[in-house]
């Protein structure tokens, strides 16, 4: 396989500017006999549906600290950097002293300080004898930044609560052991499932060396795969817009680009757009890509079969091209691995037949980890406009399927 002009991920996130507790988004009231009452707004799940969160009130004190509550807060603030940390994980940290949050921080992007450093800066001298909550084990090695364990020890925290151990072999357990050896009380495995879900792609990449692959498609009520999204799905705040923000790359049908320039683009403010990957197969296949803006062209890769290389194709002039004898899923995943991409989305819109071979290969190799199916609120009675039955994944069984109501549609989320 030959690769021309590899692209590096484009990160663009301003490091956070934290304030002390009295200036944060939390609100603290003094109510009757209670010394403190903290309230947070309704949280939303990954795709915009509101859900209740816990409201904690009562007499403040270290003996009443709810470890799970603060780890959940770590996960919540870690998600502020969604789509910006790959190949690093998303991490949040909260510093608590005498029942009050005195510092918060999250890891904003590669090369920036880790969550613990921002939280300790926020806390200042109040970090001494405090408890540090962190969603992922603090690192104990020098990389782009110094070890977080050293920062915690220098700040003289007395206790550290860790959501989960880091699966990265150069980190795993070493940060925890360093803190314990220095006399710091360490608790591990609080809200572990929630912390694992936050960084499922990072964990998969660390354990397997390959990108986490998710399949997304839409169906009508009668099970037909349809070439459309639900109401508002691709607008800011819509589930599809948020989904694109989370992924490093998205594999799409070339027909999607040819039809009214429907380029998958996240509408979330400040979102890093995924790399769009399309395939050009066979001597007679024509991409028919219209003129693309420079920002989209720079985030587009065309996988071509070697027998097509000599053909002039003005529609992809200046676009990065990957050439191989026969396009395969392994080629795409190898390319993504070289780019250090943690996760890849396969989006079944456009002409589903363009991706059928890719899906069959994915099923044979057990290369799919996750599936999202949007159920649209109508009955599709004919096989037009890309409507069809999806047979390439016959025999695969999804597990832990959960429904999320999104406006007029339902999004089913599961794992293979």
UniProtKB/TrEMBL annotation:
Pathway(s) per entry: Cofactor biosynthesis; riboflavin biosynthesis; 5-amino-6-(D-ribitylamino)uracil from GTP: step 2/4
Top enzyme class: hydrolase
Gene Ontology MF terms: diaminohydroxyphosphoribosylaminopyrimidine deaminase activity; zinc ion binding
Record's keyword terms, sorted: Hydrolase, Metal-binding, Zinc
Single Gene Ontology BP annotation: riboflavin biosynthetic process
One Pfam family hit: dCMP_cyt_deam_1
Source superkingdom: Eukaryota
InterPro entries documented for this protein: APOBEC/CMP_deaminase_Zn-bd (IPR016192), CMP_dCMP_dom (IPR002125), Cytidine_deaminase-like (IPR016193), DHFR-like_dom_sf (IPR024072), Eubact_RibD (IPR004794)
Gene3D superfamilies: Cytidine Deaminase, domain 2 (3.40.140.10), Dihydrofolate Reductase, subunit A (3.40.430.10)
EC number per UniProt: 3.5.4.26
PANTHER family the record matches: CYTOSINE DEAMINASE FAMILY MEMBER, RIBOFLAVIN BIOSYNTHESIS PROTEIN PYRD, CHLOROPLASTIC
Role, per record: Monofunctional pyrimidine deaminase involved in the riboflavin biosynthesis pathway. Also has a reductase domain that lacks catalytically essential substrate-binding residues.
This protein's name: Riboflavin biosynthesis protein PYRD, chloroplastic
